[in-house]
């Protein structure tokens, strides 16, 4: 049984407590749907475990599509976002791939969480796939491998770009420029010249998508790599 570990945020607002944010729902649901079609077993973890708030803008047109609606209106699936595991509850050897979802909230609780870093490091070093979409790559910024090197140093990746922050009207709200942060850590950052166009970058077992519209293609690429690995066994 192939198993996927989804990572989601616990943070509910920007620096201003009255300015809500959270998980960008479709970034979870689009990938979940792709993996479900393959019959994969899926688990959700968050930095603290427990409840996961949703980004309000992800519940509006055009992001609130059939996939997101099907999840949001299903009490059983919504219950999964109220009872997520914490990193301490997870054995990384049980999983074949980790998938960091986004939403601006991930900028706050992903980068410096030691539990998430340990999960990503262990899964990478055991030969698993490390993937992210949009702001999910904040969870990769500070992952150090056992030899002390950075997971993303000299590797190609993508994620939500600074021009997209500007277009989205949140450049003055975000706590840092994650595109620049990735570059500062040695990543070979790539982005599509047209904001919000789907874009996926693959570097070996590292698979990253740029924005919410890239979630499905990111998951599909993960499936392709898993199938390639299976065919070699």
TrEMBL record:
<dbReference type="InterPro" id="IPR002818">
    <property type="entry name" value="DJ-1/PfpI"/>
</dbReference>
<dbReference type="GO" id="GO:0019243">
    <property type="term" value="P:methylglyoxal catabolic process to D-lactate via S-lactoyl-glutathione"/>
</dbReference>
<keyword id="KW-0456">Lyase</keyword>
<protein>
    <submittedName>
        <fullName>Dimethyl sulfoxide reductase</fullName>
    </submittedName>
</protein>
<dbReference type="GO" id="GO:0005737">
    <property type="term" value="C:cytoplasm"/>
</dbReference>
<dbReference type="InterPro" id="IPR050325">
    <property type="entry name" value="Prot/Nucl_acid_deglycase"/>
</dbReference>
<dbReference type="Pfam" id="PF01965">
    <property type="entry name" value="DJ-1_PfpI"/>
</dbReference>
<comment type="similarity">
    <text>Belongs to the peptidase C56 family. HSP31-like subfamily.</text>
</comment>
<dbReference type="GO" id="GO:0019172">
    <property type="term" value="F:glyoxalase III activity"/>
</dbReference>
<feature type="domain" description="DJ-1/PfpI">
    <location>
        <begin position="26"/>
        <end position="224"/>
    </location>
</feature>
<dbReference type="InterPro" id="IPR029062">
    <property type="entry name" value="Class_I_gatase-like"/>
</dbReference>
<keyword id="KW-0346">Stress response</keyword>
């Amino acid at each position: 049984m192939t198993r996927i570990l989804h990572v989601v945020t616990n943070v509910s607002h920007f620096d201003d407590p009255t300015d809500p944010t959270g998980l960008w729902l479709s970034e979870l649901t689009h990938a979940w749907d792709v993996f479900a079609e393959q019959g994969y077993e899926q688990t959700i973890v968050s930095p603290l475990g427990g409840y996961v708030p949703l980004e309000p803008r992800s519940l509006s047109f055009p992001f609130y599509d059939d996939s997101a609606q099907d999840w949001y209106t299903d009490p059983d699936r919504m219950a999964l976002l109220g009872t997520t595991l914490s990193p301490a509850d997870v054995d990384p050897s049980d999983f074949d791939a980790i998938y960091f979802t986004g939403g601006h909230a991930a900028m706050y609780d992903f980068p410096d969480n030691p539990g998430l870093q340990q999960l990503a490091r262990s899964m990478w070093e055991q030969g698993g796939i490390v993937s992210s979409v949009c702001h999910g790559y904040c969870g990769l910024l500070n992952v150090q491998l056992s030899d002390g090197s950075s997971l993303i140093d000299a590797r190609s990746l993508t994620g939500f770009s600074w021009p997209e922050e500007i277009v989205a009207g949140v450049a003055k709200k975000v706590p840092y420029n994650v595109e620049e942060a990735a570059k500062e850590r040695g990543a070979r950052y790539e982005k599509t010249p047209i904001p919000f166009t789907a874009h996926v970058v693959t570097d070996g077992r590292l698979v990253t998508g740029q924005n919410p519209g890239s979630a499905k293609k990111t998951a599909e690429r993960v499936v392709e790599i898993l199938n390639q690995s299976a065919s070699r066994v």
